[in-house]
Design brief:
four-stranded antiparallel sheet; 5 helices; alpha+beta; two-stranded antiparallel sheet; 14% strand; Double Stranded RNA Binding Domain
């Protein structure tokens, strides 16, 4: 099945399990379960957002915005609530809070941070032990292990 994309001069081809970029010379393939990523990918072939400072082009406006903040203006709109540091990207702030303040999600209560840290660690181990499991089976096992660890004696 081929999906025409009017705004772009190529189609995305569904060969059963993968969406394949139809741009000549591009071999990018994405699992069909993540077909929204192929739309994101196809935009990389057509960078429509140009930096007014240096002329560099970007496929998404948010990438242009980050480029301008990090390269030209030095703007750092994401401030840490725990110290005086500020960052040009939200992901930089989140990394900082995780590394320096022990936060998993700055807006989540401490209990949620504890569970998120537990879940992240357990998912890796479960996936190593049971690589054929579905995401639902992994979620169920994470909850089972969480309840075992936090069971009231």
């Amino acid at each position: 099945m081929s999906i025409p994309t009017a705004a772009f001069p190529f189609t995305i081809i569904d060969n059963g399990t993968l969406w394949c970029c139809g741009m000549p010379g591009c071999t990018k393939q994405i699992p069909t379960a993540k077909k929204s990523l192929i739309v994101y990918h196809r935009n990389t072939h057509f960078p429509n957002y140009e930096c007014q400072h240096c002329g560099e082009k970007f496929p998404q406006k948010n990438r242009l915005d980050v480029h301008i903040r990090t390269t030209h203006t030095g703007e750092k709109p994401y401030a840490c609530k725990h110290c005086e540091r500020a960052f040009p990207q939200l992901s930089n702030l989140q990394d900082h809070e995780r590394k320096h303040h022990g936060m998993v999600n700055s807006s989540a209560p401490k209990e949620d941070n504890e569970f998120a840290a537990f879940r992240a660690k357990e998912v890796k181990w479960i996936h190593l032990e049971h690589s054929d499991w579905t995401i639902q089976q992994i979620r169920t096992e994470v909850m089972r292990r969480w309840q075992l660890v936090h069971a009231v004696a």
